[in-house]
Design a protein that fits this description.
- This protein is mainly α.
- It has one domain.
- The chain contains 4 helices and no strands.
Length: about 80
């Protein structure tokens, strides 16, 4: 079960900026979309997005912004 986590407004703003950035990677935009959709709600991260977020965190080439979005989305993954 989830702990009822919600994306903070700061992360929501970051996600919005990423989505408007034409140079942002596809992975960053995917994570940004998920994080933005979860802002102020109790929506859960899908398994596919959670996998993408985990890979982004493990990838040394991921930017700090991408890792922030990945961490936010993983926090809202449904717990087993």
């Amino acid at each position: 079960m989830s702990k009822g986590e919600k994306t903070s407004s700061r992360v929501g703003t970051t996600a919005s900026n990423v989505l408007r950035n034409p140079n942002a990677s596809a992975a960053a935009k995917s994570l940004a979309g998920s994080a933005l959709a979860q802002t102020g709600t109790n929506k859960q991260t899908s398994p596919a997005v959670a996998t993408k977020a985990a890979k982004a965190l493990d990838d040394g080439r991921s930017s700090g912004t991408t890792k922030t979005l990945a961490g936010s989305t993983l926090t809202q993954k449904t717990k087993k």
